[in-house]
Amino acid sequence: MEARVVHALQNRQVLLLCVFLGVSWAGAETLRYFVAEETERGTFLANLAIDLGLGTGELSARGCRIVSDKTTGFLLLNPLTGDLLLNEKLDREELCGPTEPCVLPFQLLLEKPFQIFHAELWVRDINDHSPVFLDREITLNILESTTPGATFLLESAQDSDVGINNLRNYTVSSNVYFHINVHDNGEGNVYSELVLDKVLDREEVPELRLTLTALDGGSPPRSGTTVIHILVLDINDNVPEFVESLYKVQVPENSPVGSLVVTVSARDLDTGSNGEIVYAFFYATERILKTFRINSTSGNLHLKAELNYEAIQTYTLTIQAKDGGGLSGKCTVVVHVTDINDNPPELLMSSLTSPIAENSPETVVAVFRIRDRDSGNNAKMVCSIQDHLPFVLKPSVENFYTLVTETPLDRESQAEYNITITVTDLGTPRLITGLNLSKVVEDINDHSPVFTEREMILKIPENSPLGITFPLSNALDLDVGSNSVQNYKISPNSHFEVLTRKLSDGRMYPELVLKEELDREEEPEILLTLTALDGGSPHRYGTAQVRVEVVDSNDNAPEFGQPIYKVHIPENSPVGSLVVTVSASDLDSGVYGIISYTLFQPSEDISKTLEVNPVTGEIRLKKQVDFETVVSYEVDIKATDGGGLSGKCTLLLQVVDVNDNPPEVTLSALTSPIPENSPEIVVAVFSVSDPDSGDNGKTITSIQDDLPFLLKPSVKNFYTLVDVSGDGTLSHSYQYEVCLRGGSGTGEFKFVKPIIPNIQAQSSGRNSEENPTFRNSFGFNFQ
Ligand SMILES: *[C@@H]1O[C@H](CO)[C@@H](O)[C@H](O)[C@H]1NC(C)=O
Ligand SMILES: *[C@@H]1O[C@H](CO)[C@@H](O)[C@H](O)[C@H]1NC(C)=O
Ligand SMILES: *[C@@H]1O[C@H](CO)[C@@H](O)[C@H](O)[C@H]1NC(C)=O
Ligand SMILES: *[C@@H]1O[C@H](CO)[C@@H](O)[C@H](O)[C@H]1NC(C)=O
């Protein structure tokens, strides 16, 4: 308010001054008028009539006008009144530029009579221009660390006004780094320079903008401004510095190779190469070098290999940033590998009970463990089975579970359950593992196999080929599955084994296999025990009897109890006497075992002598045998069975001699009488014989002791009787009786008996009583 009042007052003063000047210069040599530039058109300047001392109307009468070289028309003269008015607004700067004073000369011309007056219009400056800088911005590059006191010359501003209205002063916006020095070069030129007051730090203040104000001397002063843009130039006075000294990043383990882990960023406050940073690992381990790579320019840390949370959870890397000037800084990057639910839960079955017996109370069906290699929620698991099953899962220690029956099971209502154990982890995405247990609700092995036929009779011909098979009836078992019949066994025996065969419907039946030949005669019937075993534990079993009847074939010939029958029969045994009973047997049965006996190819003599009872085998005499005729018979006897097979035996029939023949003496020669005194004279030559055999045929020939004769055995039952008297002569004539004894007790005797009264014949009589075979004590035997 106050300033405005002052301003208005000043304007009026100028105007008043002009008017005053306008009237104060009249006449004289040169008329001088003053006007301030920018004065309004029509402004009264002076009254020329008065200034020239002319009367009113004289000017017009004399033909008065204003003449000027340069400027015409800026003044207007009223010839009637003589008033000189400003015809246009004047701009001093346009009319005179920097020239001061700004004088516009003009002439006042009077034509009648001609008279010329010189006049001047002085245009005075007013402060109507502000200082102006040619550039809107002045740029100054100043190295940081420049020593305070350094000066920087500034561009000058221009001001069209002159004199006091021209530039007078410079100021700079307030700041801590610079002040301004204003100099006057003495020619009215004012210039300025910046003076550094404080060390610049580019890193702290990389640039400054100051406002430079140029002030003129007007009142009030006018001003113009420009901006001083100060760029602080870098020197490598800074080490690269990481934005963060510790980067903690979490990287999912399934991140693909090449993916960005983190971008580390170091700053170097320096510029240019001093600020150019190269990133590198700082003493990285092999593992880190294999897993990561860093872009040296961008600081991007990338994955070079796949991560595996389950293997390594954390990597700690040191990264170095180095600037072009060799300074470096470090940071640490801790990479936490985060678990991805990349491992499905696992189900490890520890034990599994199958089948389960029906009607059992709570039974542990399965024991298993679940595990998930992930961590956190990814490793948390939920384990379940389907609803509506009579089973429950019971968690146990350390991820162990038991699957138990909830209620006793009833095989009859449901014989089988399919249980799916589902393990789900709580990770994202959910990973599920399933295990299907097919549970038979198993029937108890409460039934034994039963054969419908308790006894099976097999008729097998003897001599059947080995390996021949005989299917047998199978056993039934009310249990199912493995509790049903699985196997057949046969009691130990040498002939058969049993094979377990499978029917097309899965049932098992036994098959008997002959492994050793059957021989009815040896074993006409074989009793076997067939056992059917089920697959339960313990096994249950059922048995049946298998009676193998070996069917006969005529494979046996009759066979005699002994190959040779030796029989003695006394001669003269009566007709019909039983000689012997032969007996053959035949192991075959039936007609194959029925035997009839016959004489085998008997001679006529034998046919007449012996007969055999074909049924009983009794051999009897058909006629009497005579030892002296036939001593022995050799007879073949045949036994024939109903099948025509036969066997033979031999009967050696020895006819036993009966002592029915007395010894006989046959005289061959007899010398009688015997001349006396003849030396050793053969008295008689005789032979002794007995048709009986054996002892019955043996003879002893003897003579009495007290005779002068000697019996001399000769060849072949021949004897000579010789005279062995003392002088070799037989002086007496005797009649001798020779006593011969037969071998058999009942033998008859013939005697050659000397006719001597004292003959001793007692011994023969005695012996014959005691023993049918006797020997004379003095006799000698000859054959
Ligand atoms: C220039 O301006 C400054 C600040 O306003 C003042 O201190 C100084 O006296 C002035 N100088 C001149 C020559 O007017
Ligand atoms: C490093 O990063 C820069 C900028 O992102 C890129 O131009 C350059 O190809 C990268 N170098 C490598 C080796 O990837
Ligand atoms: C159990 O699964 C088996 C095989 O898939 C199938 O044959 C049987 O019928 C199923 N039993 C039940 C009771 O679902
Ligand atoms: C388990 O059984 C269900 C139903 O039959 C079937 O969909 C699933 O694929 C089975 N799972 C396994 C692991 O066999």
UniProtKB/TrEMBL annotation:
What's one GO BP annotation on this UniProt entry? homophilic cell adhesion via plasma membrane adhesion molecules
The membrane topology term of the UniProt record is: Single-pass membrane protein
GO terms under cellular component: plasma membrane
Question: Localized where?
Answer: Membrane
Provenance organism? Enhydra lutris kenyoni (northern sea otter)
Q: Which UniProt keywords apply?
A: Calcium, Cell adhesion, Glycoprotein, Membrane, Repeat, Signal, Transmembrane, Transmembrane helix
The gene that this protein is the product of is LOC111141050
- Please name the PROSITE patterns in this protein's record: CADHERIN_1, CADHERIN_2
Cross-referenced InterPro entries: Cadherin-like_dom (IPR002126), Cadherin-like_sf (IPR015919), Cadherin_CS (IPR020894), Cadherin_N (IPR013164), Protocadherin/Cadherin-CA (IPR050174)
The protein's GO terms of the molecular function aspect are:
calcium ion binding
Residues covered by the Cadherin domain: 134-242, 243-347, 348-451, 452-560, 561-665
Classification via SUPFAM superfamilies: Cadherin-like
Stretches for region Disordered: 762-783
Q: Where does this chain mainly localize?
A: membrane
The protein, known as: Protocadherin beta-7-like
